[in-house]
Specification:
Layout lengths: L5 E4 L3 E4 L5 E4 L2 E9 L7 E5 L2 E6 L4 H27 L9 E5 L6 E3 L4 E5 L7 H13 L8 H10 L3 H11 L6
Parallel strand pairs: 1-4, 4-6, 7-9
Antiparallel strand pairs: 1-2, 3-4, 5-6, 8-9
């Protein structure tokens, strides 16, 4: 498994992006290989044998980061929707909407209308941490604040929620492009 990021370019060999050696996804680091093909219709990302392959039309850092961000948005949306389906049976109400955003101040929010918003970087966190954020926001459908009743409900559903909460406090800064 190659440890550096390489961009294959026709007649140019490889171009390394040292800061993009590996990418976090679901709490694990995956090597990333970036292949450039000017004939591609759209940039896309695929997992192949535990390697994250980014197929790009251009080799600019801006285009590559945009493609990665789109990948994380899509993955986060699917992950969050799946987690909500798992925990939904514990709640009488359902979220009205689920949105993925780039709000750097919160991992998740629940409005008084039960509209959920989650940060796309959650796709970089381990699944048990994603579960914590989802359950946290779903518990706001019962308690719209962070009082004792709220935390008791979170603790009932996820007895070790504090470990998961601490993960975000301790490692959230590492979830970057």
């Amino acid at each position: 498994m190659k440890d550096t990021v390489s961009i294959k370019e026709e007649n140019k060999g490889y171009k390394d992006y040292e800061h993009l050696k590996k990418m976090l996804y679901l709490g694990s680091l995956y090597p990333i290989i970036i292949s450039v093909d000017k004939n591609l219709k759209q940039n896309h990302i695929a997992f192949e044998k535990e390697i994250l392959h980014l197929y790009s039309k251009e080799d600019s850092e801006e285009v590559i980061k945009k493609a990665l961000k789109r990948f994380y948005y899509q993955e986060c949306k699917a992950l969050i929707e799946g987690r909500i389906r798992i925990y939904q049976s514990e709640f009488k109400t359902k979220p009205r909407s689920i949105r993925i955003s780039d709000n750097n101040s919160t991992w998740g929010t629940c409005s008084s209308k039960f509209e959920f918003t989650f940060h796309w970087k959650l796709a970089m966190a381990p699944i048990d941490v994603i579960n914590y954020v989802v359950v946290h926001e779903m518990c706001h459908m019962v308690h719209l604040n962070h009082d004792r009743s709220f935390w008791r409900l979170v603790g009932k559903m996820l007895p070790n929620y504090e470990e998961r909460k601490n993960y975000l406090a301790n490692y959230g800064h590492m979830m970057v492009l």
